[in-house]
Amino acid sequence: GTGVDSIMLVEEGFEVVSIDASDKMLKYALKERWNRRKETNFDNWVIEEANWLTLYDDIQHLLNGGFDAVMCLGNSFAHLLDNYGDQREQIQAIRNFERCVKPGGLLLVDHRNYDNIMNTGATPAKCIYYNSSHTTDIKTSVLYIASKPALVTLDYQISTGKGEVSEFRLSYYPHKLKVFEEILRAIFRDAPSHETYGDFKPLDRVIQPAFYIHVIKKAGSA
């Protein structure tokens, strides 16, 4: 994306490598790095164009044994659609994430609560990742193929604060919680820990979270 999460991590002193397949998105991050280049952490911030489906090969020169953590948040992973009907590309992407994590490192990946969206036909306007006070409505559509949910389309209406409403559309793959957990367990075999949070809180403290966040530790030690 535009590097919002990366900027916060760089500001906290982390060494960060940010990737996106879209050069248009990378331009925002590159501009921020240039504007703050006199700050050492920002001058050292690595920004690369790469594809999740070829991620390990694309950034192998940066791995040095793997990252302490790989993060894919903000419902970003759901942008990768299921083009073949068997989630093969999504599984391939997560395998690449796993290969980029060093032994003992973490993967943090999230998705919206699509189980609830499909059950209710509605998407909560409140978002834990950005100021959603200007979101006036989200119209939700679910596309089924062969009786399986294949695509969720969200039509956003955003108040501009000047009496006008801006509209835009985003489409996602509707990940089911249990299926997503099974995929992670299959790829991160022998993982010593795998926690799932609801809106960054323990699941027993959230009735119906808007987002599920998975934190899984890779087996082994650095």
Automatic annotation (TrEMBL):
Chief location bin: cytoplasm
What Gene Ontology terms describe what this protein does at the molecular function level? folic acid binding; glycine binding; glycine N-methyltransferase activity; identical protein binding; S-adenosyl-L-methionine binding
The record's annotation in InterPro entries points to: Gly/Sar_N_MeTrfase, Methyltransf_12, SAM-dependent_MTases_sf
GO CC entries: cytosol
| Keywords per UniProt | Cytoplasm, Folate-binding, Methyltransferase, Phosphoprotein, S-adenosyl-L-methionine, Transferase
Q: List the catalysed reactions.
A: glycine + S-adenosyl-L-methionine = sarcosine + S-adenosyl-L-homocysteine + H(+)
Provide a GO biological process annotation: regulation of gluconeogenesis
Q: Which residues form the Methyltransferase type domain?
A: 1-107
| Location of this chain's protein in the cell | Cytoplasm
Gene3D superfamilies linked: Glycine N-methyltransferase, chain A, domain 1, Vaccinia Virus protein VP39
Please name the top-level EC class of this enzyme: transferase
EC number annotated for this UniProt entry: 2.1.1.20
Assembly with partners or alone: Homotetramer.
The identity of this protein, by name, is Glycine N-methyltransferase
Q: Name the source organism.
A: Anopheles triannulatus
Its lineage opens with: Eukaryota, Metazoa, Ecdysozoa, Arthropoda, Hexapoda
